[in-house]
Amino acid sequence: MFLLAPDEPGIGGLRDELTRRSLLTAAGLAGMLTACGSAPEAAAPARSTRSVTHPLGTAEVPVAPQRVLSLDSNGALQVSLELGAPLVASEILDGAAPVPPYLPAPPPGFESLGFNQLDLERVAALRPDLVIGNVQRIEEAYAELSRIAPTVTYRNAGAGQDWRESVRTIGDVLGALPRVEGQLAEYAARVEAVATRYADLIAGSTVALLRFTASELRIVRGEIFGASILAHAGIRRPPSTDTPGPSATYVSLTEETVGVTADADVLLYFVGGGASTRDAAATAQRYLSGGLWQQLPAVRAGRVVELDPVAWWDGYSVSAALACLDELDAALAG
Length: 334
Hints:
It is a single chain. By secondary structure, the protein is an alpha/beta fold. It has two domains: 49-175, Nitrogenase molybdenum iron protein domain (Rossmann fold, 3-Layer(aba) Sandwich), CATH 3.40.50; 184-333, Nitrogenase molybdenum iron protein domain (Rossmann fold, 3-Layer(aba) Sandwich). It is built from 14 helices and twelve strands. Strands 5-4-3-6-7 form a five-stranded parallel β-sheet. Belongs to the bacterial solute-binding protein 8 family.
């Protein structure tokens, strides 16, 4: 073993080499630290689901659902079609128009689930990633449905809910609330136009909305879709529509008590709707041909208008509301 003296050849080269390596190492470390310090933080991955709280619980629903299944032949079906949602199946209306004509056609591959015919095995076979429907329809099967797919419920007019709020809820679950708000603004503008155009007539008249079911005649009132359309337009109801009844949404009239509607200046009626469509025509014929009906002031004055039940009863969407306003406009103009 030997050492080089400071003044011996080679010592300068060794010192230079060590210095060069030290500088390179320091530069490399500095570069690494600089790179680490300046690199942006990695963006958090976008969530594919979100929590939705509804009347029966909380569900983790897809942010962008791809296979929507509706268990409501009114609200969920209609709003889904309005928004162009990827609807794979839905319960439908019981009548000649299972899907209302005022709505876009269902998407290709759409399957009908019938009217009030819940089949859990069939629902599972359709592989939905979102199930939506009103509380009354889903409540008994909610646990089973939630095991098949995220399931969201909403209250409808039968539970005292304004249909516009139901529509907002459905639109929000489908990830399209801004579009729904735009549609509701269009509806509000149309209501205002009708109310303004016929302001004098509306101020001087009372209107009763009637429905012939499979067994009786009913005064329609409260939050029921058609009744709410009239209320939004400022239409006044006669005192007879406040008669105590078994429900906040209707008053039953027999052929002998139909005379209570004598205080209505105008009678608007529709035949059927819902599960009453098939047998309601016979009921209507029986009442309309009766002597007490014929003696009503509105009937004698020719102020009676028949409406479309698919809009006024089965409707539960902005499209349905606009269809109702079209008929109301025509009735007031006549």
